Amino acid sequence: MEVLKRTFDFSDFPRTDLCVAGAVALFLLIFPLLPHSSFAMATMIQFLMFSVYGMGWNTIGGYGGQVDLGKAQYVGIGAYTTAVMMIRWQVPFWVSLPIGMALAVGWSFILGYPLFRLRGHYFAIATIAVSLVLKDIFEAWSFVGGARGLKIPLRTDMPSFLYLQFREDYYYYYVILGLFFVGLFYINWFRQSRIGYQLRCIKDNEEVAKSLGIDAHWAKIKAYAVATAFVAAVGSFHACYNFNIEPEDTMSLDLSVLIALMAMLGGAGSLWGPIIGAAVLVPMKNYLGAWFGAKAGLVGLDLIIYSTIIMVIAAFEPRGIWGLITRLRESRRN
Amino acid sequence: MARKSLILVSVAVLALVMAAPVWAADEIKIGVLYPLTGGAAAEGKELRDGAELAVEIINNAKPELSMAIAKNAGIKSLGGAKVKLIIQDHQGNPQLAADLAKKLIQDDKVVGLMGAYHSAVTKTVSAVAERFGVPMINESSTSPALTKEGYKWFWRTTPHDTTFTNDLYEFLDGLTKGKAKGVKAFDPKELLPIVSACEKTEWGANVDLAIKEIGKARAVPVQLSLLYAAKAPDLSSEVQSLLAPKPATMLFAGYGADAILMVKTLKSMKAQPKLIWGQNAGFESPEFLSALGDDVNGILTRTVFSPRVGQVKKVAAEVNGLYKAKTGRDLSGASARAFTATQTWAHILEKAGSTKPEALQKAANEIMIGPDELIVPWKGVKFATTGSDIGQNELGTGMIGQYQKGKDGKITLEIIYPFELATADLIYPFKGW
Amino acid sequence: MTVETLLAQALKALVSGLTMGMVFGLVALGLTIIFGVMDIVNFAHGEFLMIGMYCGLLTYSGLGADPLFGLPIAAVVGFALGVGCYYGLVQFLLRGPMIAQLFGTFGLMLFLRNLALLIMGADPRGVHHGALVGKSFVMGPGIVVELTKLTAGIFSLLAFAAVWWLMNRTRIGLALTATALDGQAARYMGIPTEKMNAFAWGLGGTTVAVAGALLVNFWPVDPNVGLLFTMIAFTTVALGGFGSIPGAAFAGLIVGLLINLPPIWDAISAFSQWPILTAGEMHQFKYSFVYLAFFLIMVLRPRGLFGWKY
Known about the structure:
The complex is a heterotrimer of chains A (334), B (433) and C (310). In chain A, 74% of the residues lie in helices and 1% in strands. With 334 residues, chain A is mainly alpha-helical. Chain A has one domain (2-256).
C-alpha cells in the first residue's frame, strides 16, 4: 500500500508543475484524435520512445551521476529477444517483452559488477567499449541474422495486438504511451525510494555515502539494472514497430549517445528532464533535417544548429533545460 | 509555468502545423527517399540528379530523344499530368527512412515510392510500403533478400547481387576461354586462388554469401573470404591476410571511403594480383576515381552503366549529353539506375491510366519496356510475378567495366563484359601500381 | 604452408602492428595532454585530426604543393583551433560537472564535422602525388613498410620525446603539471592557470592536426573520418592511463598489435589446417580485441597502465 501511495505521490512538486504535467498528459492521450500528419505521429512515437529511454538512463546517469554511454547494447538485447522469439517460435510480444527485459537485466548484472569498479571518464569509455564488443558479436552471430539483421514477417491476421502488428501507427502510439506512463510512475516511486536517496548521496560524495554505510557498488549495480530494464522494454517495442532490426541501428554508439544526450539536455536527475529533452530534441532532429537536409547547398546545416544548442546548454546550464526553468523560477521568486 | 506551457504549445503547434499541404490536381506525386547527407551523400546526389533529369524528360516533350517518355509532355493517359518528385533525405538511417515513408504516403499522399540506395534502408521502407499497400520501385539496392519476401507492392528494376556475381563467374570463365577482347585463352588455374573481402552490413554480408556459394557451385571456390567493418581507420591487417595465400583474383565489396582505403592499402602492401574486381558501390562512385587518380587503372568493377554505353546505344549517349549539360558530370551507375527507375514509373503510370494503387499494381506486374527505350544495356524491364524472386526485373543484366587510362591521360570505365558489348581490350593481367 | 611462412606472416603482422601502433599513439598524444592538464575528454579530437587532414589536402589541391608543406599550416591551424575552442567553449564547460563536459565536446564534434560537410562536401578525397604518397619499401622476408606510416611513426617518437621534455624539463611544462595536479594551488603560486589550460588545448590541437596533415598522405579524408580514430584514441589514452605521456605511446603499440591478431590467426589456420580455426572469421572482431583488452585492463587496474590520475 505504502508503495502504491508513493508511486502516485507527486505532492512535492509545485502546483503549476502538476497542472502543466496534467495538461501534457491529456494532450498525449488525445493526440491521435487531433488532426495531425503521419510524420508528426511518427515523431511523437519516437519522442515517447526516447522519453522512456531517457527515464531509464536517468536512474543511473541522472540520480546516480554515472555517465553511461553504452545503453544501446540493452536496446539490442530487448529487440533481438523479441524478434528471435517471434520469428522462430511465434512467441507473442507480451511474452517476449519480460523475457527480453530479464535477459538484459541479467547481462547488466554480469557487466555491472566489474564496470562499477571504474569511475568518471574510465567508466564512460568502458561502457562504450563493452557495448561495441556486443555489437561485433551480434554482427557475426548467424543465429540472430548476423550483420544482415532480422526481419519480422508481416502476419496475415493484421491487426494483431498479441504480436503487436498494426497497419496504423496510432495503435503503436498507445502501446508506447502505456509504457511511458508505467515508466513515469515507476520513476516517481524510484526517486522517493531508499535506493533513490542512496544514489543521490553517492552522486554528491561517494566517500560520505560509504561512511554512512551505503553499499555504493551494489546500489549503482541495482540502478544500472533498472535503467537496463527500461531500455530493453523499448528495444522490444522497437523491433515490432520497425519490423526489422540490425546491430547497426539498435546497438550503435550513436543511439547510446543520443539516449544520454536527450536526458542530459532536458535535465539529468529530475523527473521531467528526460521527457523535456526528448520533446525538444526529437522534433528538432526530424524537422530540421527535413527542412535543410534536402535543400541543395545546405547539407549539414541542421546538425550545425542542433550541435550549437547542445554546446550552449552544456556550457551555460549543465542542469539542462529543466535547470534553466528552475533558475528562472528562483530568480522570479527573489 | 510559462516555460512549461511554452513547451506544451510548441509540441501542439508542431503537430498541427504539419498538416498535409494541398497540391494541384494534375500533378502525380512520387515520394523519393535518398541519402543526401551522411556517408553516402555523394551517391545520393547522383541518384537525385538522375531521377530529376528523367522527370524533366517526362514532363516536357523532347522529340529529339528516341524514347517513349520524351514523346509528349506529361503522362498522356492521365491527360498530360505532370510527374512531381518529392525528395526526402534519409541520411542512411532506416528508422528515419521509415518515418519519412509514412510521411510521404499519408501526408503528401504520393501515389508511389522510389528509393532508397542502402539495402538496409530499402528493407525498412519496403515493409512500410507493403503495410500501406503503396507501390514502391527500388532502383539501386542489390541485396537479393529484398525480393525474397513475396511482397506485393515492391518492384526492383536493378539486377541483384546474385545476378551480378553470376556475371562475374561467367566473365572469369569466358576470360580463360579467350572470349574477352584482346586476351587469349589460358589455363583456368592461373586465376586461382581467389580471395574476397566485403564490408559487413546487410549488403556486404549478402555479397559475401553469394560469392562463396556461387563459387562453390562452379567449382572455383574462394580460398579466403572475410568481412570487415567499413567504419574503421585501418585495413592493413585485412590486406595482409588477403595477400598471404598469394591471390591471383581479388574480389571486393565496399561502400565509399573504405573502398578507397582498401585500394590504397593494397598498393602500399605491394599486392600483385592478376585481377581486382569490385562489386559496384564504392568501386564505381565518382569519388573513387577522383580520390585515387591513376591508381585505379586496370581495376574492374561490376556496374550497370558507363558513358561508353553511348557507343553502342544511341539513346544512352543522348541522355548522357543532357545529364552532362545539366550537372557537368557523366552518368554513373547510380544516376543511370535512378533515371531508369523514374522512367519505369512513367511507363507504369501511362499503362495504368489511373493513380489508384490497384491499377498501378496491375500495370507494374504487366509492364514490358523494350531494350531500345533504356539507357542501361538491359534486355528490358519486366517484373517477375511468380517464383522465388517476385517483383524482380527479369531482364536486367550486369556489366563489368575496367578503369583504363586513355592516350589523353583521362581515365574512363571501359566495358569489358558482356563480351559482345566490349568497348576496349581487356588489360590482363593487372599491371600493378 | 611451412613454418618459415608462418613465422614470416607473424613477423609481418608484428611490424605492421608496431607502425600502426605508433600512428595511433601520435593521434592519441593530443588527447592525453588535454586530459592530463584538465580532466576533460575531448570527443571532438577526431575532428581536429580531420581538420589537419584537410589542411594537408588543401595545400596539395589548392596550392599544388607537396602535402608535406601542409604540416606547418596544420600546426598553426591546430593551435588556433585548440585555443579558440578553449576560450569559446571549454572554459565554460570546466565549471560544470563531468557530464556537461562530455556533451559539450560531443556538440563540438558534431559542429566541426557538419561544418566540414557544409564547406567541403561529403566526398572522400585523397592526394595523388607527393614525397610520401604511395611509397613503400620491402624489407627482409617480404615485409612491406609503408612510408607514410613509418614517417608518422618516427614523427610520433619525436613528438612524444618533445612533449615529454616540455612537460618535465621546462618552466612552462612545470607550470602545466602544477595546473594539472592542483589548479587552485597553482593559481596561488602565481601561475596563470587559464592561460596554461588554453596552452594545453593549443598543444593538443597542434599535435593532432599535424598528425592529420601527415596521415593524409595515405588516408582518404572525408568529414566523417574523425570518429573512426576517436574511439581508438580514447581506448589508447584510457589504456595507457589518462594524462600519461609514456602510457599513450605504450598503449598505442598494444592497440596496433591487437588489431593485427587476425592475420596471425589466419596464418595459424592455414598452417595447421584445422577446420575449427576458420580463416577470415577473426577480422570482424578486430576492434573488439582492443575494447576487450581495454575493459580487462581497466577492471584489473582501474587507473590504466601508467595512469597517475584516478
